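Here's my example:
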Amino acid sequence: MARTDANPPMPEFREDYVLQEVDAAWLGKAVKQNANAGVAAGINSLGKEAELEGKKARAFPLRFVDGAVFLGPLKVGQVPPLF
């Protein structure tokens, strides 16, 4: 039976890449450009495909639990008591 070493040898590190220093403005721009795809994927994963007035749509589960408003698994708000 083989024994597993608790401290395996460290991997070899590459040295042929070039590090690039970026400022906050460049990083912010890069994040904003790629954020839309992530937001769209997240929203699409919450709902399911539907059709509304002959057009493509998404149906989302909306529920209220003790005044808390949930859109799928995400809590999106709180509703005050009605009386």
User: Anything to note?
Assistant: The chain has one helix and five strands. Residues 24-78 form one domain. The longest strand covers residues 48-52.
